[in-house]
Amino acid sequence: MAMRMSYITLNTNELLANITGQNQALALMERYESLTALARADDQELMQVPGVGAAKAAALKSALTLAIKLSQEITAEPPLLDSPDKIADLLREELRLQTTETFIVVLLNTRRKLIKYVHISNGTLDTLLVHPRQVYRLAIAANAAAIVVAHNHPSSDPTASEADIKVTRDLIRAGQLLKIELVDHVIIGAKTTERQKDYVSLREQGYFYA
Known about the structure:
Blueprint: H1 12-20, H2 22-32, H3 35-40, H4 43-46, H5 54-72, H6 84-95, E1 102-108, E2 114-122, H7 132-141, E3 146-152, H8 162-178, E4 181-188, E5 199-201
Helix pairs in contact: 1-2, 7-8
């Protein structure tokens, strides 16, 4: 009887080698240095590595996307999203791979449990244009009682910009008129030795109060 391979004991290069071949796996990790950087590369970039053709690039992107979906998989009970760390946990893996600012609306029921979340806008490296009409149209259609909005900063610094603050205040005012609460605006970045959290909550920072 053939022995069953334990994939969990394999290192990153060995797992990549199962998809691309050993030489290509070494070349990919030398070029990209981390799985995050590798996941951000598109098919055409991957195919610049000798020996990585269209089929191997597609297989690699599929495997990395499956890994993201696995990390997001939840039980039948919708998660309770009543704090910024829970929002960050929900969206971190998806947002940290984006190379431009990406805006997500998280729709919640009356108990602050997830209905669904939706991508509504992609900006540039440092600019994101969002209108309250886009956000609350989704909330009304889903019969959401409350929402959270979130986006990433590709620079890795989650500090809120003046544009982020303005968007938040516009959304607060629109939500008050529609009786749909904006619970928080969470910005995802990256941790550093000086910064213990990889996200910023604009509610925690006081922007939701007069």
